[in-house]
Automatic annotation (TrEMBL):
Record-linked InterPro entries: CoA-transferase_III_domain (IPR050483), CoA-Trfase_fam_III (IPR003673), CoA-Trfase_III_dom3_sf (IPR044855), CoA-Trfase_III_dom_1_sf (IPR023606)
Transferase in keyword set: yes
Gene Ontology molecular function, alphabetical: CoA-transferase activity
Keywords from the named record: Transferase
Domain of life assignment: Bacteria
Protein name (database record): Crotonobetainyl-CoA:carnitine CoA-transferase CaiB
Pfam families, A to Z: CoA_transf_3
Region feature Disordered, mapped onto this chain: 46-67
Length: 424
C-alpha cells in the first residue's frame, strides 16, 4: 500500500486521495461515489467559471437562509468534494497539478483524447513520476478506434449505442419515435463502471505496486448495458424494436390504465400470473393454453393484453395495488418525483438528506444508496463553493519554498472562493 493511501478509521475509502479533473456528469458521478465512501476528492475547477454545470440552472439550490448556492444540477453530482480553482493552461498551474497528482492515489479526467498531453498531465507523463498511479480517462468513444477524437455526449451516445432504438412507443402508435431516457443514464452508468475500474486497479496496485490507465468509453458502456436487448439481437440476428412500456420477454410486464390512473404490473413468473388472475376474477386465463406459461403469453401478447386492459380499467389504482400486493403480485404506482420523496418507504430509507456546508448552512440533497454495515458512507456533505478549498489544500500539499500562493493568486493562476467576494 502506498504512502498516500494509509487506512484510517472511518468510511471504507478513508485515506484515499483522488485528483478529480472532470466536469459535467460521468466523471463527477464517479468521484461523488468515491467521496461518499470516504475518499478525499480534490475537484479541480477553472478560476472564475468552475464546472460547466455550476451555471446549468435554474433551478438552483438555496440554503436555509434563502441564499442562492448554485445550480441544482451541480449539487446532484458533486457532494462531499473539495474545490480547488487552478488554471491548468498556465505553466504554474500545470506544476501545481503535477505536484498534487504525485501525492494522490487516483487521477480521473474526461478531456478529449490527448487533450492533457500538451499540459504534461496525461497518464504517461504522470506515471513517469508516480508509477503506482491509477489514472482513469472518461471519453465518449474511448482512447482508440475511428471515433476516438469525436466529442461524445450522453444524448448522442444513447442514440448511437442503441438505447433509443428500444425506448419509446411502437411504430404506428401515437407519439411513436425513438426516445431518450429521462436522465443522462449513460453518463451515470459510465460513472459507476469507472468506480468499479478504479477500485479494481487499486486492488491490483495494493497487491503489486503497479498503477495503470483505465480507458472508459461512454459508447462501450452503453453497448455493454443493453443487457438482454443486446443478447436478444445476438441470439436472433434481429434488432429489437420499441415496445413502449412493455417488455420483450415477459408478459404481462407493463403499464395499465385503471379507472383513475396508470400503474405498473410486473408479473415475473407463472405463479404470479395465476395469483393475478385470481385477484382479477378471471382464473381461467391462467389455465388457458395460450396464456398458461410465459413463452405462450409472449407469443400471444396481442390477444392477452387487451383482455387484461379491460379487467384493469374496471377498478381503481389503489384498489388494484392493495389487492395485488396482498397476493404478492408485483405492482406499483407511477410516481412523480414529488411522490417519490413523499413515499414512506423512501423516507424510511433516508434518501432525502440535508447536507451541511462548511459554514454550517443546510441544503437539500440525495443520499448515497450504498449501505455498508461496518464502514457506512460519510455523513452528507454539501457540494463545495467554487475554490472553497484552494488555499487550504494547496498550503497543505505544496512546498511553500517552491510555490508562492499569494503571487499565484495575484496573477490569476489560482483562485480562492473569497477572491470574488473581496472584490465586490
Amino acid at each position: 500500500m502506498t504512502e498516500t493511501s494509509k487506512t484510517v478509521p472511518g468510511a471504507a475509502l478513508s485515506g484515499l486521495r483522488v485528483l478529480d479533473m472532470t466536469r459535467i456528469l460521468a466523471g463527477p458521478w464517479a468521484t461523488q461515489i468515491l467521496a461518499d465512501m470516504g475518499a478525499e476528492v480534490i475537484k479541480i475547477e477553472r478560476p472564475g467559471e468552475g464546472d460547466d454545470t455550476r451555471s446549468w440552472g435554474p433551478p438552483n439550490v438555496t440554503d436555509q437562509q434563502g441564499r442562492d448556492r448554485g445550480a441544482a444540477y451541480f449539487h446532484g453530482a458533486n457532494r462531499g468534494k473539495k474545490s480547488v480553482a487552478v488554471d491548468m493552461a498556465r505553466p504554474e498551474g500545470q506544476r501545481i497539478l503535477k505536484a498534487l497528482a504525485a501525492q494522490s492515489d487516483v487521477v480521473i479526467e474526461n478531456f478529449k483524447v490527448g487533450g492533457l498531453a500538451k499540459y504534461g498531465l496525461d497518464y504517461a507523463s504522470l506515471a513517469a513520476v508516480k508509477p503506482d498511479l491509477v489514472y482513469c480517462s472518461i471519453t465518449g468513444f474511448g482512447q482508440t478506434g475511428p471515433y476516438a477524437n469525436r466529442a461524445g455526449y450522453d444524448f448522442l451516445i444513447q442514440a448511437m449505442g442503441g438505447l433509443m432504438s428500444v425506448t419509446g412507443q411502437p411504430d404506428g402508435t401515437p407519439g411513436a419515435e425513438p426516445m431518450k431516457v429521462g436522465v443522462a443514464l449513460t453518463d451515470v452508468l459510465t460513472g459507476l463502471y469507472a468506480v468499479i475500474g478504479i477500485l479494481s486497479a487499486l486492488r491490483h496496485r495494493d497487491a503489486t505496486g503497479e498503477g495503470q490507465h483505465i480507458d472508459m468509453s461512454l459508447l462501450d458502456v452503453q453497448v455493454a448495458t443493453l443487457a438482454n436487448q443486446a443478447m436478444n439481437y445476438l441470439a436472433t440476428g434481429k434488432s429489437p424494436g420499441r415496445l413502449g412500456n412493455a417488455h420483450p420477454s415477459i408478459v404481462p410486464y407493463q403499464a395499465f390504465a385503471t379507472s383513475d390512473g396508470h400503474l405498473i404490473l410486473a408479473v415475473g413468473n407463472d405463479g404470479q400470473f395465476a395469483r393475478f388472475c385470481d385477484v382479477a376474477g378471471a382464473p381461467g386465463l391462467a389455465t388457458d393454453p395460450r396464456f398458461a406459461t410465459n413463452p405462450e403469453r409472449v407469443r400471444n401478447r396481442d390477444v392477452l393484453i387487451p383482455i387484461l386492459q379491460g379487467l384493469m380499467s374496471g377498478r381503481s389504482m389503489d384498489d388494484w395495488i392493495e389487492a395485488l400486493n396482498a397476493a404478492s403480485v408485483p405492482v406499483g404506482p407511477i410516481n412523480t418525483i414529488e411522490r417519490v420523496f413523499a413515499d414512506p418507504h423512501v423516507q424510511s430509507r433516508g434518501l432525502r438528506t440535508s447536507p451541511e456546508t462548511p459554514q454550517g448552512d443546510r441544503l437539500v440533497g440525495v443520499a448515497s444508496p450504498i449501505n455498508l454495515s461496518r464502514t457506512p458512507a460519510m455523513p452528507p456533505r454539501a457540494a463545495p463553493d467554487l475554490g472553497a478549498d484552494t488555499i487550504g489544500i494547496l498550503s497543505h500539499m505544496l512546498d511553500p519554498s517552491i510555490f508562492d500562493l499569494e503571487a499565484l493568486m495575484t496573477d490569476g493562476t489560482i483562485a480562492d472562493f473569497r477572491t470574488k467576494k473581496d472584490g465586490e
